[in-house]
Design goal:
This protein is an alpha/beta fold and 146 residues long. It has a single domain (2-145), classed as 3-Layer(aba) Sandwich (Rossmann fold), CATH 3.40.50. The protein is 36% helix and 18% strand. β3, α4 and β4 form a beta-alpha-beta unit. α2 runs parallel beside α5. It is globular. The chain starts with a strand and ends with a helix. Bound molecules: ligand CA2. Residues 10-11, 13-14, 17-18, 22, 73, 75-76, 78, 99-101, 103, 110 line the site of ligand CA2. Ligand CA2 binds next to loops.
Length: 146
């Protein structure tokens, strides 16, 4: 079973700036940890990051028939991108949305996400460990253990 991990804009900067909001873990460390958890769970993960909406849409379309699920933190696109939401719907991917910060406790424009209504679940505000929890939850859901 293959699960895609999709990281949106500016998440490549994790661990370098704004640690008070986003923590000190780098994106490479998050991907490495997800690889270890995937091994434990007996699934495959592939990780992808882009700062470009169209590149994320292309990547999601390319997952059709290859991945069954996705963990996605679309960054700021989470609040606006119907294109990403449409691509996720079109490919039939079951996905969990992740946010490092608690978007529901931030500025009003961050409190709504256009991806959440199509998601299996949303993890927000738990920092980098949220990705691991999302992967565990998604695999449990996909294997009817959730
Ligand atoms: O809390 C999250 O995970 C967000 O998806 C992060 C996005 C933000 O636009 C969303 O509202 C919530 C921003 C990611 C920016 O990441 C940075 C990391 C380090 C330094 C600067 C930005």
């Amino acid at each position: 079973m293959r699960i895609a991990v999709l990281h949106g804009p500016n998440l490549n900067l994790l661990g370098t700036r704004e640690p008070e909001i986003y923590g000190s873990t780098t994106l490479a460390q998050i991907d490495e940890r997800l690889g270890a958890v995937a091994l434990e769970l007996g699934v495959d993960v592939t990780c992808f990051q882009s700062n470009h909406e169209g590149a994320l849409v292309d990547a999601i379309q390319g997952l059709a028939g290859i991945a069954v699920g996705a963990i996605i933190n679309a960054g700021a696109f989470s609040h606006s991108s119907l294109a990403i939401r449409d691509a996720l719907t079109a490919t039939g991917l079951r996905y969990v949305e992740v946010h490092i910060s608690n978007i529901f406790a931030r500025e009003p424009e961050r409190r709504h996400t256009v991806l959440a209504s199509g998601a299996v679940g949303v993890v927000a505000g738990l920092g980098a460990i949220g990705y691991e929890l999302a992967l565990r939850g998604l695999v449990a859901h996909l294997t009817n253990r959730g």
